[in-house]
Each structure stands twice: as structure tokens, then as C-alpha cells.
Write a structure and sequence with these properties.
Length: 523
């Protein structure tokens, strides 16, 4: 991999790793801060919705208290006069105060007057029997005695009452005179169902998305089930992200007995969360752009300051290598590490040039010495061959009896002379051939020759050597071998003779066999 690619990979990997790390850090720190702000906003709005509901309860309780602390009501519970009934218990009163129940109950727990009204249908309905179960004499709605001080609690009580028909906002106040004196003649109980319409009115007032479900409802939506589990075992409020667009806050409401009764839910758009995500996205995009600019600037600077100069240095060294001209030098610019490297390369080139020059001188001297050696060997071999040839010729003539017959002893001596002469001639020929080979002057011939004649010559010259060591020399030629071959008989004779000499040298007992056979008929 080139330095450019490595640099690009390193910078790219570093940039991506940095962006991932910062993204995770921003998710952990920044987004967590946005989540905290979002949850605080949900808590404030949950409290606002709860306060709105409490305001409704307080409003009903306040009106109920005004009516209960009224002398006309004080008299009505005793005489049930028609004027009060016609003027204060008609249908319009129910619409005016959005009431569903109005009950006048004496101190014996008896309903002396009561009405239940369906606001949606616009008609009177029976008083719910389920409500009657909460109106016993000792019930919290009718017994207004303050247990701590043992006196009458003239303010009464209000809250939520859970009925099979649905949750109801109730208020109960002891009936007194205008001066809030008594003795009390009973209780005035007002009630309003906390139905969907009432919840929607609260939502309109608070501009919140509200929902209320009884905690013991037969069916609860999944988010209410989760909220119920957390509210009953933890704080009275619970916050849950519905999805990326909505977040919900839940509040546990108690009834007038202090028991868990309702779960109030508000839903808010996750604008803060979305803003946080957008801010993080803008931050990451800005960081990415800055990183790309930084990476680009770094690559450009590296290209100009380092990579391009290294490329030029590499090209210069390559050109010198291709041209094999060690006299060339690399151009040096600057005083940095690359310049130092170029200087070191030039020093190395100078050393190589000097070494090459010395090597050429040594080569020329060696060639000259080889030429001198070859000339000397050629002269020696020429000067030595002539007397050797004469010695061999005269010895052979003596053996053939040209100058008279010889004794057996004389023939043996002549054999010794011929063997020694042939060996010496063989040695001289080897020296001459070696010198020619070193000088590069060996020329191979390509002429017809007889392999049988060649082996006969080898046998003639090598048999005496083998006999001296007590070895038997055998030469064999296969019948399918052609009689005439094409090649250099002199060189082949030298090769075979050298092989035989080596075999004789390293063999102490046995025989030396030279065999010529056909290996490849086509070639």
C-alpha cells in the first residue's frame, strides 16, 4: 500500500473514530441534558394538569360550601319549603354548576331531598345506589367532626369518589347559617362525574393532551399498565417516552379515602428531544465538515511537503537504477529529513561509483592476467607438445620393431614411457582448455565422429592407469547405438577421460566400466 493510501486510511479512520466517539459522548452528555429538561417540562405540565383538576374540585367544593353555609339551605333541610326547591334545585342549577348529583342529608343520614341529573341527556335520573353506600352516618362524607380537636369541621370535604358508573368529584359540607353557626342540620353533597367531557374541558383549559383511567379498570392500555406498576411501587409520578415524537407523564390520584384511584396522563410532543437531536446532528455535521476540511488540508500539505518529494526521490533513484549510471546524483532541496535522506543516497551512490570503478579495474586486471596466463599456457603447451609427440612417435616406432627387435624388458620400459607421455599430454591439454575457458575462447566443434574410436582412444590412454591400481578397465558400446555421431570428439574425449581419471582415483578394488548407450532415439 502506498504512503498516500496509508495516509488517507489513517486520517479517515481517525476522523470516523473521532466522530463516532463524539457522537456517543454527545448522546451520553448533551442528549441526557436535553432529556432532563424534557422530563422537567413533563413534570411541570403534569403538575399543571393536576392543579387544574384540583381547581375543579376546589371550585365545586367552594360553591357547595357557599350553599351549605346559607341560612336558606339551613331552613330548607328542616321545612323543605317550595320557594327554595323551585328556586335552587331546578335543572338550570345543574347546568350552571355542571352537577350530576345534589343531595341534602340530615344528621340521621337520611336524604331529605336529592336529585341526580344526566347533563348529556338533559333529564333527571335515579340517584346511583353505589353512591348511597358511601353516605352512611359515620362515613367521611357525612361525619364532619375533626378527630384531632373534636370540633366540627365547617369546611367539609371534597375529592374523588370511585363508583361503578365512573369516577365522581364530590364535595360535602355541613349545613350551617350564614354566620357559619349551628348546630349543623346535616350535609350538602354535590357530585360531578369525571367523564370524558370533563377531561376534555380540562385539556382545553390547560392546552394539554389529557387522559384519565381508573387504576382498577378491567382493561388498561399497555402504557397505563406500565405506569401503574411503577406508580404503585415508586414515586407518585412516572415519565415514559411513547416514541420519538411523544413523551408522557403519569400521576397517581387518590380518592377521598386516600386509596389509589386514578392515573392521570399527559402527552407532550418531544420538541426538546427533537431539538436536542437536531443540535447533535448539526454538531456532528459541522464536525464532519471541519474534519473533511482538516483532512483535505492535511493531505494537501503532506502531498506538497512530504509525498511529492518522496515520489521525486523515488523516481530519481529509479532512473539511476534503470540507467545504471552511478555518476548521476539526486537533487537536494531543503534541510529536513527527506533532504538528509537524499544526501545519504548521494553518498551511497558515490561509494557505489568508487566501488564499481575499483571493480572494473580489478576485472580488467583479471582479464589481462587470464590473457597472459592463456598465452603462457599456449606457449608452454605448444613447446611441450612437440617433444612429447616426438617421444611418443619414436617410442611407438621402437615398439613396432622398425629399428630392430626389442626384448620384453625393453617393451615394458617403452610402455611406461608411452603411458607417461600420454598422461602428460592429457594434463597439458586440460590446462590449455581451462585457460581458454577462463578467457572465453573455447569453441565447440560440430563434426561427425565414431563413438567406438573415441572409446578406444580413452581405453588406450586410461587402461594403463587402471592397471597400476589393479583395476580392470572395460569399455562397452550398445549394438543399437549409431556408428557415427555429430559433435565435438575432442571435448567429449576430455570429459570421458576426466570422469575415468576421477573413477580410478577413488576406486581401490574392482573395475572401471565405460558404457555408451542410446537413451532417446528421436533426439
Amino acid at each position: 500500500m502506498s504512503l498516500r493510501k496509508k495516509t488517507l486510511v489513517i486520517i479517515g479512520t481517525t476522523l470516523v473514530s473521532l466522530i463516532i466517539a463524539l457522537y456517543l459522548f454527545s448522546q451520553l452528555i448533551f442528549l441526557n441534558s436535553f432529556n432532563q429538561v424534557e422530563e422537567n417540562t413533563v413534570r411541570r405540565n403534569t403538575t399543571r394538569a393536576l392543579n387544574a383538576l384540583n381547581d375543579e374540585i376546589s371550585a365545586i367544593h367552594g360553591t357547595d360550601r357557599e350553599w351549605a353555609h346559607w341560612t336558606d339551605s339551613y331552613n330548607f333541610i328542616e321545612d323543605l319549603n317550595d320557594n327554595y326547591r323551585e328556586g335552587n334545585t331546578h335543572d338550570g342549577i345543574f347546568y350552571t354548576y355542571s352537577l350530576n348529583v345534589m343531595l341534602y342529608i340530615n344528621t340521621k343520614g337520611e336524604i331529605v331531598f336529592g336529585r341526580a341529573f344526566d347533563l348529556a341527556a338533559g333529564q333527571e335520573v335515579p340517584i346511583p345506589n353505589s353512591l348511597m353506600n358511601h353516605l352512611q352516618t359515620d362515613s367521611i362524607l357525612l361525619n364532619h367532626s375533626d378527630k384531632e380537636i373534636g370540633e366540627l369541621n365547617i369546611d367539609g370535604i371534597s375529592g374523588i369518589l370511585m363508583l361503578p358508573e365512573g369516577p365522581m368529584i364530590v364535595a360535602s359540607t355541613p349545613i350551617l347559617t350564614n354566620e357559619k353557626t349551628g348546630p349543623t342540620r346535616g350535609s350538602l353533597v354535590w357530585g360531578r362525574y369525571l367523564n370524558d367531557q370533563e377531561i376534555q374541558e380540562l385539556a382545553d383549559k390547560t392546552r394539554l393532551s389529557l387522559a384519565v383511567q381508573p387504576i382498577e379498570a378491567a382493561y388498561l392500555s399497555p402504557d397505563f399498565v406500565e405506569a401503574k406498576s411503577n406508580l404503585l411501587t415508586g414515586p407518585a409520578e412516572y415519565i415514559r417516552s411513547q416514541n420519538d415524537e411523544l413523551i408522557a407523564g403519569y400521576e397517581l390520584l387518590q380518592d377521598i379515602y386516600g386509596n389509589p384511584a386514578l392515573i392521570l396522563r399527559i402527552e407532550l410532543p418531544r420538541e426538546i428531544y427533537a431539538q436536542g437531536q437536531a443540535s447533535i446532528s448539526y454538531f456532528i455535521i459541522s464536525l464532519l465538515i471541519a474534519g473533511l476540511i482538516f483532512a483535505g488540508a492535511t493531505l494537501i500539505l503532506l502531498e506538497r511537503i512530504v509525498l511529492s518529494r518522496l515520489e521525486q526521490l523515488n523516481a530519481s533513484v529509479g532512473n539511476i537504477g534503470i540507467s545504471t549510471d552511478l555518476s548521476k546524483r539526486i537533487e537536494i532541496t531543503g534541510t529536513d529529513e527527506i533532504s538528509s535522506l537524499a544526501t545519504a543516497i548521494n553518498i551511497m551512490l558515490e561509494a557505489l561509483s568508487q566501488a564499481h570503478h575499483k571493480l572494473e579495474q580489478a576485472r580488467d586486471q583479471a582479464i589481462e592476467a587470464l590473457q597472459v596466463k592463456a598465452q603462457i599456457l599456449a606457449n608452454v603447451s605448444h613447446d611441450a607438445r612437440t617433444p612429447l609427440s616426438i617421444i611418443m612417435l619414436r617410442s611407438e616406432m621402437l615398439q613396432r620393431g622398425i629399428h630392430g627387435s626389442l626384448t620384453e624388458h625393453q617393451n615394458k620400459q617403452l610402455d611406461t614411457i608411452l603411458i607417461s607421455a600420454r598422461q602428460l599430454l592429457f594434463f597439458i591439454n586440460n590446462l590449455l582448455d581451462q585457460s581458454q575457458l577462463d578467457a572465453g575462447k573455447v569453441i565447440l566443434e560440430k563434426v561427425p565422429f565414431s563413438i567406438s574410436d573415441l572409446l578406444a582412444e580413452v581405453e588406450l590412454s586410461m587402461s594403463p592407469l587402471a592397471s597400476r591400481k589393479g583395476l580392470q578397465f572395460v569399455a562397452q558400446i550398445d549394438q543399437d547405438l549409431p556408428q557415427t555421431l555429430l559433435g565435438d570428439p575432442n571435448r567429449l574425449n576430455q570429459v570421458v577421460s576426466n570422469l575415468v581419471v576421477n573413477a580410478i582415483k577413488f576406486t581401490d578394488i574392482g573395475s572401471i566400466k565405460v558404457r555408451a548407450r542410446l537413451v532417446d532415439k528421436e533426439h
